[in-house]
Amino acid sequence: MKKLWCSLLISSMCIGLLSGCGKENGETPSGTQEGKAETETTEKSADLSAIYSGELEKDVTIRVLENDTAIAEGYFQEVIDAFNEAYADYGIVAVDANMDQYSNLADDGPYGYGPDVLYQANDVLMKYVEGKHIYPIPAQNLESYDKIPQTAWDAYKTVIDGVTYYMGVPVNVQSSMLYYRKDMLPENWETEWDKNGNKIPDMVENWNDMYRYSQSIVDKGEGKFGYMRSMYDVYFSSGFLFSYGAYVFGDQNTNAEDIGFSAGNAEIGANVLLQQAGLMNEDCIDDSVTVSAYSKLADGTYFATMTTPDVKSLFLKELAMVYENEGMSADEAKAKAEENLVVTDVPRLPASGDLTEENPELIPLKAMGGVNGYAISAYTKAPNACLAFVEFATNYDMIMKRHETLGIVPARSDAAEAAGGISEIMYHNLDEGNIVVMPSIRAVEQIWTPAQTFFQDLAKDAFRTSDKKYGSLEQIKAGLEAVDKQIYDAVHTLATN
Amino acid sequence: MKDGVKKNTSEKWGKNVKLSMCLMGLGQFFYGQIGRGLCYLAILLLAVVYFVYRGFSDLIGLFTLGTKEADTWLGLEGDNSVVMLLMGILSVIALLFFVFCYLSNIKDAYETQKLCERGGHPAKFKEDLKQFLDKKFYKTVLFLPIVGVCVFNILPIIFMILIAFTNYGGNIVPPKLVDWVGIDNFVQIATLSQFAPTFGRILIWNLIWAAVSTAVNYFAGLGLALLLNKECVKGKAFWRAFPMLAYAVPGFITLLGFKFMFSYGGPINQIITDMGYRAVGFLDIDAKWIARGIGFAVNAWISVPSIMLLATGILSNRDASQMESAKIDGANAFQQFRHITLPFVLFSTTPVLISQFIGNFNNFGIFFFLRGGLYIDGYFLASDTDLLINWLYNLSISNNYYNVGATISLVIFMITSFISLLIYTRSSSYREEDTFR
Amino acid sequence: MKSMKTMRVLDTVVTHVILIAVCFIFLFPCLWLILASFSKSGSIYSFEGFFPSAYSLDTFRNLFTDTEMYNYPKWFRNTLFIAVMSCLIGSFLVILTAYTMSRFQFKGRKTIMKTTLVLGMFPSFMGMIAVYIIMTQFGLINKMWGLILIYSANAPMGYLTQKGFFDTIPSSIDEAARIDGATNFQVFLKINLPLSLPIIVYTALTSFTFPWSDFILPKLLLKEKDLYTVAVGLMNLGETEFSRFAAGSVFIAVPIVILYFCLMKFFVNGMTAGAVKG
Prior knowledge:
Low-confidence stretches of chain A: 1-46
Oligomer: heterotrimer
Structural class of chain C: mainly alpha
Strand content of chain A: 5-15%
Radius of gyration of chain C: 24 Å
Structural class of chain A: alpha/beta
């Protein structure tokens, strides 16, 4: 069976090479489409012509699965309206798939209930590759190909029988950001807390000063805290391990045999977390901080927290409400909230892992992140129309609009530059490799519970009065090794095949 | 072959019986039972149509589980092994049903023949129908439920049992083709060294959980019903409304609410810290017995109202004269309860007790919502509050190893069903159904 | 005589103290949920101890007017339809099954009883895969009737409780009626049914509340957002929609409370009014 399949692939590739044409980009949507179809054949993923004939299907409806925020904020309606207008001549209509944003194509698609185009995270989309539930994308032919960094494309890369395929088009980057209250900085920060004189407070630049500042807040004994974060959350806590040499899976997150939460000097990173937990209260052990951060940052109980950029509007809403209760008008409150809530890059870590060290050598924090993007269902009746939609929705204008309405960080370099601010920082981080993109293999599902248990245990240890479990680096290392073993067990013990 | 059968029984079987053997309903026609004959004929026709259209290929599919793998990229439509397995089981059920109808058709003709020999006359169709409201009332009534239970309950269970003998799961999910592997899965589980200690620990906890929580819920519910039944309690509907409030809130909302209430930032810890004590980790990683205790309490909060309701209904059916005479005889309240009320309630609620026990044994939601996402040392991919069903979930569904999951559930299923059958068949409500009639 | 009286007073006092304690235990979490639904902030943490820091009716207003993303009224209608239909069909089937199993002696009866008991023990989520595939084959995905079909078809599995009740109704009346020439169907309809009001009410309540609050099956079988039930919809809410979640949860409890007050009368008095035993 496999052999037959290979030979089919090879022959189709040969045909593709023989019938190749030059690159040609038309101006009209249809022209672009035809141009694409022709150029496909010159690239190495020639066999895709079996999927994309290049001829747009007429009078078809394509169902698009978008994420809830995009629908709620009205962005999605704008995209489909614009798309439907541009493709009105072909009778192609894009509609909301009207399904759960996390719905599983592998369950729905084969029976004909899935969407045609999906917008999901890379680790979710890549799960569909094994059963070939999604079509590969002729990435090299897309206008956005050169604009999106290779690290983002890599999140969608898969190699089947020696041929490289890209399974989705990256749209936005998701990773950790530091949120803090500008008005809660000490009044003399410009003289006392800005050693390098770059007009950025030191405590949001490196974790050592954040630790010192948190300590000073806690010492006041007003029941307030500096930096707070639910420790159990793997998405945010694992970054501290990665910064000191840990990784999820070996061979660039592709080899599920090699699990590396304890690799390198990961225990030093875990010890940083342990020190931080010492300046928090018990809320950091379970998910209390995650849920409460919105209102506790607003009422001034917390100075800073770390979370993803897409929830900024929720923080603003809560902060504005506090100001409104203090007697401000709605507009004033909103303006003041936007001024006082700052979202910035995550602070840098001390290379030694000692948060009390003065003038430490600093290294960047490698946070875990993800790349969300579009993919095309393999059960669609109109692959060419779907491709046209994906291309339309990932062009510069649409990505910029998406950024403006949703505050997302674009994966396109031109859009990220134009957007500036957080987007530029994060794009930069991605480009530099400081964002560890979530693995795109199925085994990733098994990392959460073991790692989450460990982080919870670690946070709890800061509050244990007797028999501490993680008193030394060796004990922490052993704990991390146990995590690796559990993940290995979860992935492999039951695999019969 | 067929002739041989005929010869041996020709004295016994009349012409019409043989006709019925050849064609369902034909014998009945010759007895003048047109309606009955038509019914049998219709069944035959339905069966033929079904088997020609898909039943036969489904039956073959059950053995092959698909031969052609799908490939969407090449536009190849293939076989979906899982669907084939399921439809195959369905076709077997259909076949059995058809054979049953065929045999009943022969039996029916034979009985009519005997009836005629004795000088009776074959029943008219109208009389047949009447029978279904009287003597055969149970058949009429049970037909729909049995069909429903077969399709939506037995079929899935057979399906899962058969899955335990395939390699379905992991990488082998449709469009990949699934295959039969015999008892490989059982061998694998038996030889897995990490498996036995965890299984033992969880099984013991699971049994304690099921027994204690059933007892707590049952007696609390019954006690509440008795309390509310007292003469001195005025405004019973008002008092009963409070437990009903708990009953009215859907279970998963209750569980999420309780999880929050017992979390570090929740209202209970807030009260504790406001009083100057340190926050208590009710459900965190070290909270083995506290978390278990909360499990019991929350489960009682959810289940007691419905048991109270049931007990109230059953108590209202109690023989009042018996209570009166007991009172006159000078029995005190406890004696009345012990000797009259309890046996009565226990008798009619033994099935409830058993189904409560089963429900609690397989109570997936409670610890999944309250304390999910933990793997504790000394347990193989489980936590110390996890029940077998939670563990099963960790191993199979979240891991995708359906075959292993099915194998373990089969093992658990055999243990639990053995225990409960033993209890049930010894209970008075099973053996002496007429006690209170 | 005097001590009898003090005993009675003491008994009454103790009874009421226990009752108040019980009511408090059941009320406390519900009260918290109700208060949360009136909270002005969407966040679960805008609380001062037990009470929200600010109150408003906005959440309830939003629940019914802001239907762009979360169409609560629609979810509510869907849930009501599914629950009412499943309740009617399901209770009918359960009562009949239980009655038959209690009153008729036939071949295979004990086998059926044992089988149903054992079947209930199979971990149900393992069979979900099969149920899903059956429904895809019958084309019943995204159909509310598909859900009703499953709920009703599974209802008879829980007949044991009802059978236990029928076992306590004396069969002497049945026999008297049969001598008068009534068919089994008539005996059931005219004699046993009126006597079993409490259990019918109990059955109706339970078979209403199960689909009413279930979220696994609707999540599995209803893919379109327009078809969501309240349970699925609530689970889908965003993380800062807590007060909406609370309001939605409070409102979902209302029909059951109403149902309870309507049915309670029949429920408690059903048997004593029957005047069979007293």
